[in-house]
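We were asked to recover a plausible sequence for a given structure. The inputs and outputs are reproduced exactly as logged, with field labels preserved.

PROBLEM: sequence recovery
POSITIONS: 260
GIVEN STRUCTURE:
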């Protein structure tokens, strides 16, 4: 029922009227939501389709999810699109995904820009094919002054790899005498992560039944709440997202302290 109510309203006034969003406690929204979009392959295989059809179907789920983030004014949404480990997949699937990223970025950039989205890419973007790398950097540059949701796409991303790169950057700063070893604190590390400037991850959503983090935002998710669903990513709807946000709003977070 809720799915039928979802239109992707882009003005706050219109969005506020959408019954889908009425149940959301807007005072308790996550500052940063991170999504592991898992189960595209299983979705396709369950329908006798090629795995790549699952990735194509996953794009629609992602667009709807981003619309919810825009409608509700979420500050930051990050999705795991391709990990440093995903290169182990068959060539044709990797090629398909890279083409899908290129095509979708080209197709959606105008609308995302018009919706005030700030795009950002996390991971070893410089190691991607030159055309995709340039496209990603151009999209970041074009949307950098937007004031809406910060939408980050983790592409060729691994949490351990990100920490290795941050550590190398710190070591280089120490070696050059720019900082002393004793100056290295949490803020110095965060400033060298791909997510520098973004709020910590408050909520991690993972679809498709597996209960693990899979090398995603290891540092940033230190105190994140988790929300899991057995639903495969292509079947993830705005209603699922709203359910996750409602659940998050009811959680008591203590950050290692005691109940208030
Ligand atoms: C995980 O499902 C999904 C991926 C590795 C790719 C995610 C990509 C998309 C949803 C398309 C996003 C598009 C843009 C433009 C960012 P899986 O293949 O691991 O599924 P399985 O576990 O069932 O095999």
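RECOVERED SEQUENCE:
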């Amino acid at each position: 029922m809720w799915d039928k109510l979802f239109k992707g309203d882009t003005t706050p006034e219109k969005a506020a009227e959408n019954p889908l969003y009425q149940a959301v406690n807007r005072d308790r929204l996550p500052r940063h939501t991170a999504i592991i979009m898992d189960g595209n392959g299983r979705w396709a295989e369950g329908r006798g389709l090629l795995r790549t059809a699952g990735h194509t179907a996953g794009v629609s789920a992602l667009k709807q999810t981003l619309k919810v983030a825009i409608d509700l004014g979420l500050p930051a949404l990050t999705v795991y699109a391709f990990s440093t480990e995903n290169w182990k997949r068959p060539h044709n699937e990797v090629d398909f995904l890279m083409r899908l990223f290129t095509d979708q970025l080209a197709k959606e950039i105008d609308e995302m820009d018009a919706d005030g989205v700030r795009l950002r890419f996390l991971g070893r973007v410089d190691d991607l094919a030159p055309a995709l790398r340039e496209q990603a950097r151009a999209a970041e540059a074009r949307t950098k002054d937007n004031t809406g949701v910060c939408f980050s796409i983790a592409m060729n991303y691994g949490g351990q790899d990100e920490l290795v790169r941050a550590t190398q950057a710190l070591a280089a700063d120490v070696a050059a005498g720019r900082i002393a070893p004793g100056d290295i604190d949490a803020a110095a590390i965060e400033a060298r992560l791909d997510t520098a400037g973004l709020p910590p991850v408050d909520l991690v959503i993972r679809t498709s039944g597996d209960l693990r983090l899979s090398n995603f935002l290891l540092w940033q998710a230190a105190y994140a709440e988790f929300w899991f669903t057995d639903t495969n990513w292509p079947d993830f709807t705005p209603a699922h997202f709203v359910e996750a946000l409602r659940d998050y709003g009811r959680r008591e977070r203590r950050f290692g302290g005691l109940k208030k």
